[in-house]
Amino acid sequence: VQLQASGGGLVQAGGSLKLSCAASARTFSNNGMGWFRQAPGKEREFVAGISWNGGRTTYADSVKARFTISRDNSKNMLYLQMNSLTPDDTAVYFCAAARGAIPSREGPDYRYWGRGTQVTVSS
User: Fold this and answer.
1) For residues 89 and 86, what is the distance between their CA atoms, to the nearest angstrom?
2) Which of 4, 23, 52, 121 is the residue whose CA sits 20 to 30 A from 72?
3) Rounded distance, CA 99 to CA 80, Å?
């Protein structure tokens, strides 16, 4: 599975961005998917996860109610709608495919990782 994240950019605090992640293989529809991020000097952290059919989602407390993860299995696409962005959301965002069908908050539970996309939120 090859993953490619896109949609990052520079936005002012309070603004919105929508990230996309394109997957290359049909097995995408069988796997849970997730978004992670890594800020400079910080460890990678979980942002959001979604089950294989979109029926279950989970979010980090820091983004709950502001971010929405979704997927379109017919297009092999994963999305992350980010609203009410703050400078603390500045990071490189990565999409990842889980080893199983349900989402996980743990990085080792993800088998495939895409190249990240930079999100910068100015104050």
Assistant:
1) 6
2) 121
3) 20
* Half-sphere exposure at residue 43, Cβ-oriented, CA atoms within 13 angstroms: 4
Structure token digits, residue 100: 């199983």
CA angle 10, 12, 13 (to 5 degrees): 125
Q: In sequence order, which residues have a C-beta less than 8 Å from that of residue 108 and are 6 or more positions away? A: none
The model's pLDDT over 21-67, given as tens digits with 9 standing for 90+, comes to: 999 876 688 899 999 999 999 999 999 999 999 999 999 999 999 99
Tokens 């961005």 belong to which residue?
17
Kindly calculate the radius of gyration of the chain based on its CA atoms and give it in whole angstroms. Answer: 13
Cβ atoms 26, 84 nearer than 8 A: no
CA 109 to chain centre: 15
DSSP-derived secondary structure letter, 114: P
C-alpha to C-alpha distance for 119 and 49, rounded to whole angstroms: 18
Q: C-alpha distances in angstroms, 18 versus 15, 100, 111?
A: 11, 25, 24
